[in-house]
Amino acid sequence: MTERRLAHSGFTLHRDYPVPLERVWDAFAREEEKYAWFAVDDAFEPGAWVFDFRVGGRDIAEGAFHAGPVSRFEGTYTDIVERVRIVNTYDMWLDGVHMSTSVASFEFEPIDGGTRLTQAEHGVFLDRFWADGPNREAGSRGILEKLGQYVTR
Prior knowledge:
CATH superfamily: START domain
Strand content: over 45%
Oligomer: single chain
Low-confidence stretches: none
CATH architecture: 2-Layer Sandwich
Distance between the termini: 49 Å
Strand order of the largest sheet: 1-7-6-5-4-3-2
Number of helices: 3
C-alpha cells in the first residue's frame, strides 16, 4: 500500500549569462531553441514534445532515461511578460506515477555584460516522492547549466 503524504520544497536560483537578454529569452520563447537545450540530453531518449508558448499554452517534454524510468513534464504558462518574466505551473510524472506539482517563475534582467536569470520555485511532492525536493533543486541547477552552455556556444 502506498503511503499518502505531501512534502513542500522551494528554492531560488540566480544565474548570470554573458549574453544579451534577448538571447536568453529566445531560448525559452522559441520552440527550436528550447528543444535544443531542454529536451535533448545524452542521458535519455526524447519522447513526446509539445510547445505552446503563450498564456494558457501547454508544454510537454517526455524522455526515457537509458535503462531507467520515463520522465514526463506537463506545464501550463500562467503569465508571460515579454523579456521580463515567465510563470508556469507544471506536473512531473515518473513511469506514469504523478510525482509533483510546482509553480515556477523565471525573471530576466539585463545586467552589465549580460543577463541575470532568477528562477524561483515551490513544489508539492506526492506520496513516495515526498523527499524529492532537494533532487528537484539539483536538477534545476543542471538545467540552468545546460541553458548556459547553449546560449554561450
